[in-house]
């Protein structure tokens, strides 16, 4: 087995307080050192990324008096991909008096994460969730309200309590604009120095501490080294390693991966969430996949033809020849089973040749019953905008013909390893939001990503970062410091290497091929054989990339292909690590399903005795084996049990 | 289907720029407009030419990054649709399609179809927020908001700051953008304390950024992919007048 | 560094466009009110020469005896001139800004959704101004009037629009239609600028603007066409 990795020493989260879980965060806040307000302006913090986590962190740190330098690759901080989140944000407000509580949200999240998340972190997340809603309302976020003027809640993602706050289907957009506006206020006040259209390409580590980054101005191509007392990565997830995903086209792993190469451990890379209700691919031109809200499954019925290869139009297939497979296999949850289960079931029926639409990669989501029962008006009121979106993209009218859906990569639970303080294994490097691994375990529940991003940025990081910065300001690092020069040279060398290869294949063609490999072997179902094969394929494709890629233009201009080349190069290394992580985890849990580890009736089988740990990987070079460090997980409050939705 | 595109090519802000014609063959009607340009770019790269630079990100109509004037219309011929959500089935085989960047002095061209929209950020900086430092927020239910106001505020808040309104306006005015933000925050009780200074400061920032004034032509609302209603501009004007009156007191 | 996002493009502060628009709306409303008063006076021509000339005389004695003769008229003329100048100055500033805000045209000229009236506000305004100048020289100072008999407005008008001078009537008609178009967009636009803010109000406002413009156009064209057709002689 050790062809692919080596085992290292265990790792522990030393920042987490012990004792009663309810007071751990309170105690951490009390023990955290404080920074004198007068000293804060002398302390500079770099924040990479301006999504929910980065935007809220930058605004809050600036409000507290720190000098913040913020970077994003988009043309303005308001476009970060948090904006695309549709469903909602969870908070344990218990406004519905339906038995919700911080403890229940904590419990649901640990269980939903398939017992692969830290209890301490999740409890803290649940407890700050209530403050998030207060904060967002104060900023003027237009949440949905009831006629009495109070906030509306809905049940989301199969939970039995209504704790999800939402702003129609655009919750992420509205929350992000709240954070963006708070940020712009600080930019106007001069406390945040905003650098849009800038991409972080390297981390600068001086004497063991994260002290800066190397960035490229994407308009002029200018490379600069930016120094600070601490660096915060809020650069999002890595779903684009699959090429096709619901991520924005620009989403990438480069910031995280560069930090990983500099010593930050990368945790649980194989945990990816595949969302069941996306619009299927329509052809080889496909550049991204579009998610439709999970809420569609509340009234839509999922089915495929009973017989393989049935090419009739859906309307011509009689009831008796349809297989409503979710209702058949999971009678108690039916169409509302969790995301991972719905996704895998769709894959299974398509593997049996019963998929529908182009390429046989799709299943029907049928609203005929709902329209018959509630009337078209009622269905339109509930899902009108989603139906329009579907029709805009596919050209088909879902009121008349069933929607076609297929799973797509949506979220990555893995990320840089952080301790309770959200600090990585490099002192001074903090990681927030989807970029870290901390709160969702092996599977994320619906409406929890927004909660985590904002919880980290508004409430957790500003406290824990202060504890680190209390020891600062740190000695100024001169621009000619060895570490700075080396980091800068590494970036310049890499850029000139991309430009000099002048091969015969485009960056996108490599990315697409890498995506195929990842989807095929490291997607919804993984096997030892497949993963081993994938690692070989990725390695040879990576070699080919460095021989044959063609990057047009120069480095001194807006060059979108040069940007892509750097991102894809990092995806190759990440993809390999994802496969290695998936290969080593010989159990099925959450978003990771190993075909070898399933129950007799085909359900995921965890092995808590062997794998109840966080796999944190250390980098030693693209051609050398990574080292596995295990952080054992303890469950004092929520005892591991098997999820069952039958 | 086979089409021709005539695309604005401009190597950088100092270049004069020109329209260049390209053939794009064998495009699926199910491809999006941006996917059609992806196909063109793949070909250009392999031919050793410079691919067309264009802004795009989420490709699901919400980030506001994509920005093209297609056949003279911001975001193209389909109403209430961003460029990334426009599909080739809305064109015919053999069509010649003109693709140009947003045209406005406040949005200078960076390269090809990419423009600099940071002027919008400056308008927000001037007052497009509610001052609510983290941690100072009262309990969310302390202030009920009438559902009608919350719904109207949401409608205004759906603006994605793509800039199509400015691109379509013969005066290069950003009134619809500013009006949407002023309406969103002005409709919420939380937004009242700063309501007057907000509208005065945002309008000042808008003027200083080099946007033109509004002549109530309505081109902006026609092309808005999010259907921001034109009458919000009236609301903005009314807020401004009241703010002037209040500040004179 | 690209702190460009944080530095304003201009350091000097511009006069608010919306303030200029409010100025245009306010002065525009004054001018429209004057147009209605003027039209009502014009229509007195249908009551005969004596009534009309008497009305003309009365105009000079408004405010009497508190005000000496013609004082009111001069106050009104001064007010109107100020309004027109302010309207034009604001329009010019805004037009120059608009041109500067859109320095490059689209290669593919879009089909516009706004009506002809909205698009011709600026050129229409210039035509209206030229007309006002001619109109004053014609029927106020009588410099260009063929009859040019002071205190006899009825005769002056009849001579002015005599069938042989069809080109004068044509120019007058074109100008009045230009005024109508200008007001069709202008009246509603003024309401919007002053804060009209509902979609229903927009429809009603545009309807009222159309109606008022039509009334003005018909009212003003009635006189020359009555002379032309011999209804008034």
Automatic annotation (TrEMBL), chain B:
One of its GO terms (molecular function) is 2 iron, 2 sulfur cluster binding. Residues 150-179 form the 4Fe-4S ferredoxin-type domain. InterPro entries: 2Fe-2S_ferredoxin-like_sf, 2Fe-2S_ferredoxin-type, 2Fe2S_fd_BS, 4Fe4S_Fe-S-bd, 4Fe4S_Fe_S_CS, Beta-grasp_dom_sf, Helical_ferredxn, SDH/FRD_Iron-Sulfur. Residues 18-103 form the 2Fe-2S ferredoxin-type domain. Gene3D superfamilies: 3.10.20.30, Alpha-helical ferredoxin. Its cofactor is [2Fe-2S] cluster; [3Fe-4S] cluster. It comes from the Bacteria. Keywords: Iron, Iron-sulfur, Metal-binding. GO terms for biological process: aerobic respiration; respiratory electron transport chain. PROSITE patterns: 2FE2S_FER_1, 2FE2S_FER_2, 4FE4S_FER_1, 4FE4S_FER_2. Belongs to the succinate dehydrogenase/fumarate reductase iron-sulfur protein family. This is Succinate dehydrogenase.
Automatic annotation (TrEMBL), chain C:
Keywords: Membrane, Transmembrane, Transmembrane helix. One of its GO terms (cellular component) is membrane. The chain crosses the membrane at residues 18-40, 74-95, 116-137, 166-187, 208-232. InterPro entries: Cytochrome_b-558 (IPR011138), SQR/QFR_C/D (IPR034804). CDD domains: SQR_TypeB_2_TM. This is Succinate dehydrogenase. It comes from Paractinoplanes ferrugineus. The lineage of its organism: Bacteria, Bacillati, Actinomycetota, Actinomycetes, Micromonosporales.
